[in-house]
Amino acid sequence: MTTVLIADDQPLQRLGFRMLLESQDDMTVLGEAANGTEAVRMTAELHPDVVLMDVRMPGLDGIEATRRITATGDRTRVLILTTFDLDEYAYAGLRAGASGFLVKDAQPEELLSGVRAVATGDAVVAPSLTRRLLDAYVHHLPTAPGLSPAAPEDRRLAPLTDREREILTVIGMGWTNTEIATRLHLAESTVKTHVSRILAKTGSRDRVQAVILAYDTGLVEPS
């Protein structure tokens, strides 16, 4: 059973999400938050698998709430809801630690599959789209706390082997596992093993965060 916390300042929007989620046999809604402060508090109390997080809320917004939730190291993952698929809020949400984002006019099936994917540890945004976001906004928004650009000698890269560093670089460039396997002449199962080790060694929550790490450490530069 996937547990969800809904964070949105509009009651009708929360009701709609609740009705959709609870129509599924494998999902249950643990609670609703009307602002970011409530979302942070309720996440700490309820430990949901997924927080469905609106961005624009009064007081503490969804971006800062996401940052505080992911900073705890808890298993809860955040799925950001934005108005446009390539806007500054999607960028900021990913930088804050969200595992993905969906636009608010997504189809119900997309929302449900997104929640399921995030709950199982997958990222609900392609690495190539993450790179487009970073390329578009990395020069225009302040760097997230603790994620300042650094030299390739960044301590987060220290545990990686040369091959893992190479694969992290191409992950940052938006390559899929299949592309990595083909271009680097590796079995796809080997690539998956490398990716899993990279995530574990660098403390990246998912592939999206690995892309961001590749930017932050200078392995990949904006095009």
UniProtKB/TrEMBL annotation:
UniProt organism field: Streptomyces pharetrae CZA14
Domain Response regulatory: from-to ranges: 3-119
InterPro entries named among the record's database cross-references: CheY-like_superfamily, NreC/VraR/RcsB-like_REC, Sig_transdc_resp-reg_C-effctor, Sig_transdc_resp-reg_receiver, Tscrpt_reg_LuxR_C, WalR-like
Keywords in alphabetical order: DNA-binding, Phosphoprotein, Transcription, Transcription regulation
Domain of life: Bacteria
Gene3D superfamilies associated with the record: 3.40.50.2300
GO molecular function: DNA binding
HTH luxR-type domain sequence ranges: 153-218
Coiled-coil regions, chain positions: none
Protein name: DNA-binding response regulator
Pfam family, one: GerE
